[in-house]
Amino acid sequence: MVLDHTKGEYTMTTTAQQWGNSLGVRIPQKIAQQHNVVKGAELEVVSSEDGILFKPVKKKPTLEELLAQCTGENPHEEFFNEPMGREKL
User: Fold this and answer.
1) Overall fold of domain 2-71
2) Per-residue confidence at 9, pLDDT binned at 50, 70, 90?
3) CB 48 within 8 Å of CB 54
4) Residues ≥6 apart with Cβ < 8 Å to 16
5) Buried b (16+ CB within 10 A) or exposed e, 19-45
6) pTM value?
7) Which of 5, 28, 30, 61 could form a disulfide with 65 if both were Cys (CB 3.0 to 4.6 A apart)?
C-alpha cells in the first residue's frame, strides 16, 4: 500500500475473486476504517470512464432515530420565548 502525502490517499493493488456469480474485491482495513466501512455496510458502486468507484452509502436518519437522541439532558430553549411583532397588541 502506498500513501500519497500530498492528497492523503492510499493506493494498493488487489485481485478480483469469484464470489458466487459475481466478483469481489477486498478493502484493506486501514482504508475501510478511514471511510467508516464495516461488515454489512452498504457501498454504492459507480462506473465511469475513469474506472470503478466504491462510495459508502450515507443514509438519512429516520425521525424515530433522531428523537431517540433527545433526552432530558439536552433540551433547547424555545426560539420564540418573547412576544414579537403584532402579537404584543
Assistant:
1) Pemi-like Protein 1; Chain: D (2.10.260)
2) confident
3) no
4) 23, 24, 25
5) eeeeeeeeeeeeeeeeeebeeeeeeee
6) 0.52
7) 61
